[in-house]
Prior knowledge:
This protein is α/β, with parallel strands linked by helices. 49% of the residues lie in helices and 12% in strands. Mean pLDDT is 85; it is low at 144-148. Residues 150-215 form the HTH luxR-type domain. Residues 3-119 form the Response regulatory domain.
Amino acid sequence: xxxxxxxxxxxxxxxxxxxxxxxxxxxxxxxxxxxxxxxxxxxxxxxxxxxxxxxxxxxxxxxxxxxxxxxxxxxxxxxxxxxxxxxxxxxxxxxxxxxxxxxxxxxxxxxxxxxxxxxxxxxxxxxxxxxxxxxxxxxxxxxxxxxxxxxxxxxxxxxxxxxxxxxxxxxxxxxxxxxxxxxxxxxxxxxxxxxxxxxxxxxxxxxxxxxxxxxxxxxx
Length: 220
């Protein structure tokens, strides 16, 4: 059973999400929050698998709430729900530790699939969309940073893992990596898993951000 917390300042939006989620045999809603402060408190109390997190809420917004939830070491994963597919705040949400984002007008089956994917440890944002998001808001990245070879998050990676992290940052899917680097897709999945474990990245979205932060990948 996947447990979900809904954080949104609009009561009708929360009601709609609850009705959809609880129509599924494998999901249950453990709480609702109308602002970020309440979301952080309820995550600490209920330890849900997934938080559906609105960005714009009164008081503590969804970005800061996400940051605090992740910083607290919670196993809970955050799925940002945004109004526009390139909401400028979505980028900040991903950097704060969210595992992906969906738009509010997504189809019900897309939302359900997104919750299941995040609960399973996958990223919801497609690689190409992640690349577009990061390229659009690349000015948010620091102008200067530690050169990639010296970054402590990369020191444990093999040359092959560093190569695969680079192309993940460029938006390649596992299938594309397998085809272009002449590897079995199962081998690529193994490499990706090791990259996540060694770098401490929570999922593929965080791996893409890491590739940008360490300058393995630069905006096109």
